[in-house]
Amino acid sequence: MSGGVDSSVAAYILKEQGYEVIGATMRIWQDEDYCDIENQGGCCGIEAVEDARKVAAALDIPFYVLNFADEFKKKVIDYFVDEYLRGRTPNPCIACNRYIKWESFLSKALSFDAGYIATGHYAKISQLDNGRLAICADFSNPKDQSYALYNLTQHQLKHTLMPISDMNKDEVRKIAANLGLSTANKPDSQEICFIPDDDYGAFLEKSGRGLIEPGNFINEAGEIIGRHKGFIYYTIGQRKGLGAFGKPMFVRHINTADNTVMLSDNEGVYSNGLIASDVNFMGEDGLFAPREALGKIRYAHKPAKCRLRVENNKIICRFDEKQRAITPGQSAVFYDLMGNIICGGVVDSAVE
Description:
The chain is an alpha+beta fold.
């Protein structure tokens, strides 16, 4: 239970369906000053624990706080910092889902003899004709969260329930309000949970994991055209915060070796495809021949038609039409035409 309305209603629905429900919140905040989660720390922050505790009391279910602070630091925070220092743009929520919520948390739940873990995600688990389980997207639902769950294993999916998968946010809030739950009108968390002020640059500077120095902006010809404040402050496709160049400019490439950030016009940040590694197969147990798919290169990306193949354990994807700002470190998730996740991986590079 994250302390939000979605997990609150998920717990209520399961209890109404006759499940024996136990509420649990993960303690992930750190003791160190540089990553202290404040009262407004989004999901799993200190305030969220108290909100979840109140909901559990209202639903008359047991409630526990489980400590995963060490695992969270190693698998999420350290990964987040390391990726930025490599000039990449990580997705910490995907790492948290895979390694904390569906590895550490599920393992603890099974040790309690629980049959499942349940969450308030807007996503649906389907069993396909081939017998495998897969997250099925609802692309018409703006809250669809399938993209962030592509990395789950068959074992994890087998022990997962998602009670609000067929609902929308308004329906969920209405149920919570009718029950008088304190989370009914609680706003959604927008920031990275361990950076409550959303100043990830300052967080990275304070981490002490690497020296962040100013460097040069260059154009596609390699000519110096300005100065940047440190490559961690930039991501592919970014326009704001670059300075004035007489025309709109966008981040095209980050080179950590010489501390340069390449800028181009908007057309320069479009690519034909991508290469992705750390592949997780979900709806299929492998890709044995090229196939058509729908691909998403970020959470809010509209699914785009593409063709996939696997080479040296990496996904090679070519889109039917060029896509904007394919970003190393982000995840690429691929669906069949019915919306079931085939596989996904972490973007290594864009392909021209």
